[in-house]
Design brief:
The chain is α+β, with helices and mostly antiparallel strands. The chain has 2 domains: 6-97, OB fold (Dihydrolipoamide Acetyltransferase, E2P) (Beta Barrel); 114-418, BirA Bifunctional Protein, domain 2 (2-Layer Sandwich), CATH 3.30.930. The protein is 30% helix and 27% strand. The strands form 4 sheets. The protein has an 8-stranded mixed β-sheet. A 5-stranded mixed barrel has the order 1-2-3-5-4. Strand 4 (69-78) and strand 5 (86-97) form a beta hairpin. It is elongated and about 85 Å long.
């Protein structure tokens, strides 16, 4: 018989099936052996009766441990007591591999699971998250391509940074000192003058000495750059992206969200509501009313973002942060030179910043002056500054950490679970 997935077998509901996968659970007696079989699609209970199979098959069945790989033939039927409501009575059993005793047992610590990530990634929880992550990546591509954006890739190895110097990973590049990229942006701004509307999803690296539940040293960055759009049009684009991704996940991953015990009633209203927009000064006033004093000019920390979002159940844009606290490429607001024409998109449920964007400074002298104030070598940015010398035009862009979006959508406690193999200050293997 042709092998089908467990999900296909359950949808079939009755009759003969041929399945293959791994032992998820096992128990038995002198006469019956119960195994819960898993594959990438679902789990199903399988019953092996000593009298229905050969002597060799019965001996093999009694040697099965968790994660042994098998092929079975049998008859599927409804069984309310089974984990997924169906049961397979096995008529033929073939062992592909006898697993050794599995090192992961119930209720193990987060650190033990991290040490065994290469095995834990096959757990049902991680499989569900990785499926949702796959949907998120696909939805990002779909959204930008539908909006006529071209996908563009840039170097991972770069001569200088775009954010803060201390967060750069330094590497030896033959006889030169180079860095791992923090963002695709500076090269994107060069390519944009040819393609006009571009996006990417690529790795970015931040050497931040942070051990929070929101930070990774290596993460996937969805970024966009486009000519002729201002800050408010950019926020519309960003809001549209978030809603498109959530709509796609709600459509394709209801089963995975249920397995993760994520209440979709929290996510569904987000599709119907306009994301609030306030500026930095308004945010400071709101925080004051909530009993939190923040000095004007300071960037908002995690604790302040959480307090700010305590009354909101959708993401919120905070715009026009103080210029001196921002990256060099964010322009001053002509109406208020103290602030930059920029935004952060902050997520509810204590998830912090999802995305950050801005219009881009077109003033060559201002860019050079800001770089000098930040102690950067101007020669490392010569290629970037050239883009302001030859036909510069108004343009804007934003970046979004994909793992943070996955964390929020899945209702995870830690961003480390939103990626297959997380990299942090202390975690660089497996």
């Amino acid at each position: 018989m042709k092998f089908i997935s467990i999900d296909e077998a359950i949808k079939k509901g009755m009759g003969k099936v041929s399945l293959r996968g791994w032992v998820y659970r096992e128990r038995g007696s002198n006469q019956l052996k119960f195994i819960v079989l898993r594959d990438s699609t679902e789990i199903v209970q399988c019953v092996i009766d000593k009298d229905k199979i050969s002597e060799k098959e019965w001996k093999d069945a009694n040697k099965l441990l968790i994660e042994s790989s098998v092929e079975i033939e049998g008859t599927i039927a409804k069984e309310k007591r089974a984990p997924t409501g169906y049961e397979v009575k096995v008529s033929k059993l073939k062992i592909i591999h006898f697993a050794e005793k599995y090192p992961i047992t119930k209720d193990q610590s987060v650190e033990v699971l991290a040490d065994y990530r290469h095995l834990w990634i096959r757990s049902r929880k991680m499989t569900a998250i990785m499926k949702i992550r796959s949907t998120v990546f696909g939805a990002i591509h779909e959204y930008f391509r539908k909006n006529m954006y071209y996908e563009f890739q840039s170097p991972i190895i770069i001569p200088g940074g775009a954010e803060e110097g201390p967060t750069l990973f330094e590497i030896k590049y033959f006889n030169e000192k180079m860095y791992l990229t923090q963002t695709w942006q500076l090269y994107a701004e060069a390519a944009m003058f040819g393609l006009e509307k571009i996006y990417t999803i690529a790795p970015s690296f931040r050497a931040e000495k942070s051990k929070t539940s929101r930070h990774l040293t290596e993460y996937w960055h969805a970024e966009v750059e486009a000519t002729w759009i201002n800050l408010y049009e950019l926020m519309d684009l960003c809001e549209g992206l978030i809603k498109h991704v959530i709509k796609k996940v709600l459509k394709e991953n209801k089963k995975e969200l249920k397995l993760l015990e994520r209440d979709i009633k929290i996510l569904e209203p987000i599709l119907k509501k306009k994301f609030p927009r306030i500026n930095y000064s308004e945010a400071i006033e709101i925080l004051k009313k909530k009993g939190m004093k923040v000095e004007w000019g300071k960037d908002l920390r995690t604790i302040e973002e959480e307090k700010l979002m305590s009354d909101y159940n959708t993401p919120m844009f905070v715009t026009h942060y103080p210029k001196d606290a921002m990256a060099f490429y964010k322009p001053r607001d002509p109406k208020d030179p103290r602030v930059a024409v920029c935004f952060d998109l902050i997520a509810p449920e204590n998830n912090g910043e999802l995305a950050g964007g801005s219009e881009r400074d077109m003033d060559l002298n201002e860019l050079v002056d800001t770089l000098k104030k930040k102690g950067e070598k101007i020669e490392d940015y010569s290629y970037y500054l050239d883009t302001r010398r030859y036909g510069s035009v108004p343009h804007s862009g934003f970046g979004m950490g994909v793992e943070r979006l996955v964390k929020w959508i899945c209702g995870l406690d830690n961003v480390k679970d939103a990626i297959g193999f997380p990299r942090t200050m202390t975690r660089f293997k497996p």
